[in-house]
């Protein structure tokens, strides 16, 4: 994996890694979860970019998306709300409020 070239800057690499962790289908990150291997700028399809996949034509629930991201980050941080809030770059009380709003618990 260390031999793989990266066309962007370190910040873009960090964002791509965070995206891959959040959106991966299992508990272990697979090669398929990484962005496509290209030297060119990522393609933008239906409003998508390197961080957000292409958007469905029939719409998207922002509430469901936010809930899913919070669930994934809580799982990633093993229920540690302080670490999850830091990862999401929001104050702890904001994350706690949203967890309560969506009926999420530490182990959800």
> Topology as H/E string?
HHHH
Major sheet description: none
- Spans of at least 5 consecutive residues whose pLDDT stays below 50 are 38-48
Shape: globular
| Subunit arrangement of the protein | single chain
How much of the sequence lies in strands comes to under 5%
Helix content: 40-55%
Estimated structural class: mainly alpha
Q: C-alpha Rg, in Å?
A: 15 Å
- Number of helical elements: 4
Distance between the terminal alpha carbons, to the nearest Å? 32 Å
Mean pLDDT: 77
Strand segment count: 0
Organism: Nannocystis pusilla
Keywords: ATP-binding, Nucleotide-binding, Transcription, Transcription regulation
InterPro entries: AAA_lid_NorR (IPR058031), Homeodomain-like_sf (IPR009057), HTH_Fis (IPR002197), Sigma_54_int (IPR002078), Sigma_54_int_dom_CS (IPR025944)
Protein name: Sigma-54 factor interaction domain-containing protein
